[in-house]
Amino acid sequence: DQQVKQNSPSLSVQEGRISILNCDYTNSMFDYFLWYKKYPAEGPTFLISISSIKDKNEDGRFTVFLNKSAKHLSLHIVPSQPGDSAVYFCAASDTGNQFYFGTGTSLTVIP
Amino acid sequence: DVKVTQSSRYLVKRTGEKVFLECVQDMDHENMFWYRQDPGLGLRLIYFSYDVKMKEKGDIPEGYSVSREKKERFSLILESASTNQTSMYLCASSFSGRGGRVTDTQYFGPGTRLTVL
Q: Who's near A21: CB < 8 A, 6+ residues apart?
């Protein structure tokens, strides 16, 4: 049973515009969330994280928003660049042993 | 910079063969993980280890085993490879988390694309 869901398999955005990637989770015990970026034939690389004590975390062009009541988080990329084209995974964890990953969203930024 | 390396980028094996996938990390991380990535299914945890000689089953351990004899090395073993084990295999490592959390941010290797014929 998928505890972390990314309902949009793909997203296309024009260069310079905002990309918004969404992630929903079902387990209310999750309190730490991460986004990873993955290029083809490479492993995922850590992008940004957020703890449940916050509702926003920003790092340069990347901002993650957390809505605990809706069990929803989103990643905003502003402005989007062609090099941002990749698959983005969200992941969630409680204090347990593992992270639970979503199925990924493939972002294409069109020049 | 954290470095996680995997022994092969691409591997082709035949059904029934024993397959070893090796992973090495150089950051003295306590925790190591093996995932497989399949289209539409995301990353699924096979096994993880939080200490030398310790292992825990993840969500899909069937058909796999692991070995961790040294802190920096974590091996995934397919005892008798089958075609449904064709996949991208990703190794990750992390420090133990703070405040009782078992795992902190995980760092991934480049992956091994395994094809079983």
A: A6, A8, A11, A35, A74, A75, A77, A88, A90, A105, A107
Judge whether B89 and B75 are in contact, CB under 8 Å: no
Do the chains contact at B103 and A101, CB–CB below 8 Å? no
Instruction: Tell whether B54 is within 8 A of chain A (Cβ).
Output: no
Compute the average pLDDT of residues A62-68: 97
Which band of pLDDT confidence, cut at 50, 70 and 90, is reported for residue A35? very high
How does residue B105 score in pLDDT terms, banded at 50, 70 and 90?
A: confident
Q: Is there a contact between B108 and A36 if contact means CB atoms under 8 Å apart? A: yes
Is the pLDDT confidence value at A80 over 90? yes
User: d(Cα B65, Cα B76) in Å, to the nearest integer?
Assistant: 6
- The answer to whether the Cβ–Cβ distance between A36 and B42 falls below 8 Å is no
